[in-house]
Automatic annotation (TrEMBL):
Origin: domain of life: Eukaryota
Organism in which the protein naturally occurs: Porites lobata
Family label: Belongs to the proteasome subunit S5B/HSM3 family.
Stored Pfam families: Proteasom_PSMB
Name assigned to this protein: 26S proteasome non-ATPase regulatory subunit 5
PANTHER family named in the record: 26S PROTEASOME NON-ATPASE REGULATORY SUBUNIT 5 (PTHR13554:SF10), 26S PROTEASOME NON-ATPASE REGULATORY SUBUNIT 5-RELATED (PTHR13554)
InterPro entries: ARM-like, ARM-type_fold, PSMD5
Entry-linked SUPFAM superfamilies: ARM repeat
Length: 505
């Protein structure tokens, strides 16, 4: 019955046009969406090429219905079918004036590229890859993104990375670089992503010369393009040793440092400073000593921006202090001057009481990083952390506890993360035992009402229990209560017994 009905509709589609064709397509769509029939039962009776042919129209409604049918049919085909069986239709669809058709074909190619068989089919059909590269210039961003994903998947294959940089496709990239700025930067973004995939991918990207052209964008006059350039160069430098070394080779690091030094002389530079600071911040996370020694103006600017009037500069400075301080080497590089250390910690402490939510949250995140230690801290690290903590204010733990009582769930969770970072230090645990109300706060499950807060508080309890100092610091009855909290889990709710009395209302 279903097969006969389907065959009758397909016959109508094959001989109809205009409104009759539209009615037949709608009938087929209704049949495929009917709960009375199995989609897999119907698909063998529907020639997909017939539906592709129906896309050759200016009728938007027909295109929309046809696209919906094709999506269902193709979803049941193997990923490589789009190339193996519908090669010509897909190329025609990628050049269709209606973006939804282009999007459909490109989404199928992206699905194809994510499988081994599909990728091999792609590599055997260079013309499809050529049109995929051209789709980077599509006026519709979703189409360009699908093309990017397909090309990145292709580059993950050894044969794919070689093919992408052979003459035919390389010349397509070069042609795109001559188009308008937004398309040129899509190519840059693609190449920056590909170079991070493997050493082989990096060498191909380096040889093609596109990364070097990206570096030269720094010398342009358009401030927005220079900002986009710095963002991509930051991504490249942060992607691994290859990207960072190449950034140095082509003089990017030196040029950015010179721009940082000239910040005061050029008023427009204030727009670029956050991006430049972020670039050096990424470098300093993996090479804190090298970066802070070779580029001293980086940290000098960071410290001065902590009190900047420009909120963008202030936020990036706070974020950078936290990001670089996450490792012990980074913490020592940032906090190497006692007087300045005290100033920085006082600023962060003042910030966590700010009415500006971004300033407050970034400062709390910075404190989490500053006091974080993946292992039991050494005596030397413990002393440094303690000096930074005590520099914040007269009673920093009480300040944080008071902050946690504010009616903001995000603040609760952020403060709990700070407490969790502090939990590994013996001196911090000792502060907890003497801070009025702190131990009661630890045991009080009602302080957190959302899932994230409950989980974070549980993580704090576990961190305290795992510390080698907790048995020594906390009295035995309280230590047992911590163990009970851990055993009950983050979402435990104590049941209150209700007793009914005769005669009660």
């Amino acid at each position: 019955m279903a097969a006969e009905k389907c065959a009758e509709i397909v016959q109508r589609i094959s001989i109809s046009s205009g409104q009759e064709l539209m009615a037949a397509l709608q009938d087929l769509s209704a049949l495929l969406n009917s709960p009375s029939f199995s989609l897999r039962e119907l698909v063998p009776h529907i020639p997909v090429h017939l539906l592709f042919g129906c896309l050759s129209t200016k009728n938007d409604e027909q295109i929309d219905v046809c696209k919906g049918i094709l999506k269902k049919l193709l979803s049941l085909e193997k990923a490589d079918a789009v190339i193996m069986h519908y090669h010509d239709f897909v190329i025609e669809g990628m050049n269709h004036p209606v973006f939804e058709v282009r999007e459909l074909c490109l989404s199928e190619l992206e699905r194809c590229s994510a499988t081994i068989n599909g990728l091999e089919a792609l590599l055997d059909n260079v013309d499809v890859l050529v049109y995929t590269v051209r789709a980077l210039s599509d006026e519709n961003l979703s189409c360009a993104k699908l093309a990017t994903k397909t090309l990145v998947n292709t580059a993950k294959h050894d044969s794919g990375i070689e093919l992408l940089f052979q003459h035919q496709i390389k010349s397509e990239f070069e042609a795109l670089l001559l188009k308008k700025d937004v398309i040129r930067f899509r190519v840059y973004e693609l190449i920056v992503t590909i170079q991070a995939l493997s050493d082989r991918a990096f060498e191909n990207c380096k040889r093609c010369g596109i990364l070097e052209k990206l570096g030269k964008e720094l010398d342009g006059d358009d401030m927005l393009l220079r900002l986009n350039c710095i963002e991509l160069l930051t991504q490249m430098a942060d992607s691994g040793e290859n990207g960072l070394m190449f950034a140095k080779e082509i003089g990017v690091v030196k040029r950015l440092y010179n721009l940082l030094l000239s910040g005061d002389a050029d008023p427009l530079m204030s727009l670029m400073l956050p991006s430049i600071i972020r670039f050096f911040g990424f470098l300093a996370q993996s090479r804190p000593v090298e970066v802070t020694e070779q580029y001293p103006a980086f940290l000098q600017n960071v410290f001065s921006f902590l009190t900047a009037c420009d909120p963008a500069l202030k936020l990036i400075a706070i974020e950078t202090v936290g990001a670089v301080s996450l490792s012990e080497a980074g913490l020592r590089a940032v906090f190497d001057n006692t007087i300045r250390n005290d100033e920085v910690m006082k600023i962060l402490c003042s910030n966590i009481k700010s009415s500006d939510a971004d300033i407050r949250s970034r400062s709390l995140e910075a404190l989490v990083s500053i006091f974080y230690s993946p292992n039991v801290p050494s005596d030397e690290l413990s002393l440094l952390a303690k000096s930074l903590f005590t520099a914040m204010t007269l009673n920093p733990l009480q300040t944080l506890l008071d902050l946690s009582r504010q009616p903001f769930e995000d603040v609760h969770c952020a403060v709990l993360k700070v407490f969790t970072s502090l939990a590994k230090y013996k001196w911090a645990q000792e502060h907890m035992t003497t801070c009025p109300g702190f131990l009661e706060y630890l045991m009080d499950r009602s302080t957190e009402t959302d899932k994230a807060g409950k989980e974070q508080k549980y993580e704090l309890i576990v961190a305290l229990l795992r510390s080698p100092f907790s048995k020594e610091t906390f009295e035995k009855p309280f230590h047992l209560r911590l163990r009970e909290y851990e055993r009950e889990g983050p979402f435990y709710v104590r049941v209150q017994a209700a007793v009914a009395f005769e005669g009660a209302d």
